[in-house]
Amino acid sequence: MPRSRGTVASHARRRKYVKAASGYFGSRHRLYRTSREVVERAWTFQYKHRKTKKRDFRRLWIARINAAARLEGMTYSNLIHGLKKAEVLLDRKSLAYLAIHDPAAFSKIAEVAKNSL
Length: 117
Known about the structure:
The chain is an all-alpha fold. The protein has a single domain (about 5-115), classed as Orthogonal Bundle (c-terminal domain of poly(a) binding protein). The chain is built from 5 helices and no strands. The protein has helices at about 5-20, 30-70, 75-85, 90-100, 105-115. α3 (about 75-85) crosses α5 (about 105-115). The longest helix is centred in the middle third of the chain and has 40 residues, at about 30-70. About 15% of the residues are buried.
């Protein structure tokens, strides 16, 4: 039985890594071994940062809401507690958007929260 060689499959497998490293500097986009190391490292960072992105944005929204709530004379926790008591169903993303782009609407929402407390 003739010997089977895996040149096509192995070459395609290596080319996948080198292609993923296109645009990298120096031997990182030319040589297979270095491009594999760099691409796998980049893939782990991509996976990790897709998870932390959600946390980071929530922290940013909370900081913005807190700053706007303090201009209204209340804290972030009091605002959120008042909105929950008043059964206002606004998430933190939309509250942060209102705090920056429409302060008048945010102040009305803060009044609703104050009155429910």
